[in-house]
Amino acid sequence: MTSSASTRPIAAAIAAHLQEGDSCLTTQDLASYRARVVEPYETKYRGYRLFTAPLASGGLTTMQMLLLLEEYDLVDMTLADRFHHMAEAMKVSWPERLKRYGDLDFVDVDTEGELSDAMMDRLQRR
């Protein structure tokens, strides 16, 4: 998709607003951006098929958290217990994201392995 005259004012407004907050993003950056069509990640959670965009979206981490929580009956828990389990799932999943995941142009991640039972066992032992 090419930049049209009708979108340039929008790009200029976005860039100007971001630059007010010390961003280095320019209208040229916006004009040169090209979206990529990629295969989503998929997992099953409580009988549902879940899909998410690849790594940079944070979806893999969210899927890991859900898989860690799957064994618990969250509905029958107190709110405090539910938040506790959610926080524990976040606590072990986020370091994986921060240390090992990144832009797919620069890192190679085995998504199936990251969502495997073996990985969930490893994360649960933390």
SSE map:
Elements: H1 8-20, H2 27-32, E1 41-45, E2 48-52, H3 59-69, H4 79-100, H5 111-114, H6 117-124
Antiparallel strand pairs: 1-2
Helix pairs in contact: 3-4
Largest sheet: 2 strands, antiparallel
Number of helices: 6
Query: Span between N and C termini?
Result: 46 Å
Shape label: elongated
- The average pLDDT value, as a whole number, equals 90
Order of H and E elements: HHEEHHHH
User: Could you say which structural class the secondary elements and strand pairing correspond to?
Assistant: mainly alpha
Question: Which percent bin holds the helix content?
Answer: 40-55%
Low-confidence parts lasting 5 or more residues at pLDDT below 50? none
Beta content: 5-15%
Radius of gyration: 19 Å
Strand order of the largest sheet: 1-2
Tell how many strands the DSSP assignment holds: 2
Q: Could you please describe the fold and organization of this structure?
A:
There is one protein chain. The radius of gyration is 19 Å and the shape is elongated. The mean pLDDT is 90. It contains 6 helices and 2 strands, in the order H-H-E-E-H-H-H-H. Strand 1 (41-45) and strand 2 form a beta hairpin. By secondary structure, the protein is mainly α. Helix 3 (59-69) crosses helix 4 (79-100). Strands 1-2 form a two-stranded antiparallel ribbon.
